[in-house]
């Protein structure tokens, strides 16, 4: 008779933001920092905070909707997902030196293991993996 061992459940933190405005960015970064510390993944905190700030700023600037944020521990790191209710997918491009905006997703793509955009019925999910 063989023993069956269950894998430990992945730890995660989920939040719903009914409105995204600049005032929520600091508290959300703090929540991400605290959870990564609890999960002993503090070394990922700087990039995770930068990434969640970029994704939420894009929701504020482009989607003009609320959103859902999920930070999930994986076997070798974390995944951060932001789901909003606007169908328009982000466009990532390498910015020219004289452009004043449009660098965030490009920089995040250079820092993250993966950066993906997924269309959903009635919105989209943007996520990155560290």
Automatic annotation (TrEMBL):
Coiled-coil regions listed: none
Keyword Cell membrane: no
Gene3D superfamilies assigned to the protein according to its UniProt record, in alphabetical order: Histidine kinase-like ATPase, C-terminal domain
Superkingdom per UniProt: Bacteria
Keywords: Kinase, Serine/threonine-protein kinase, Transferase
Signal peptide range in chain numbering: none
UniProt GO molecular function: protein serine/threonine kinase activity
Any Pfam family matching the protein: HATPase_c_2
Residue span(s) of domain Histidine kinase/HSP90-like ATPase: 25-128
Full protein name: Histidine kinase/HSP90-like ATPase domain-containing protein
């Amino acid at each position: 008779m063989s023993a069956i061992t269950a894998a430990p459940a992945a730890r995660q933190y989920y939040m719903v933001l009914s409105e995204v405005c600049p005032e929520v960015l600091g508290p959300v970064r703090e929540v991400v920092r605290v959870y990564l510390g609890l999960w002993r993944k503090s070394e990922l905190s700087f990039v995770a905070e930068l990434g969640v700030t970029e994704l939420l700023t894009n929701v504020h600037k482009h989607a003009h909707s609320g959103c859902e944020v999920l930070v999930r521990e994986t076997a070798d790191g974390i995944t951060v997902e932001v789901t909003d209710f606007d169908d328009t997918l982000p466009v990532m491009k390498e910015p020219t030196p004289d452009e004043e905006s449009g660098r965030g997703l490009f920089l995040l793509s250079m820092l993250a293991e993966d950066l993906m955009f997924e269309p959903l019925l009635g919105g989209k999910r943007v996520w990155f993996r560290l």
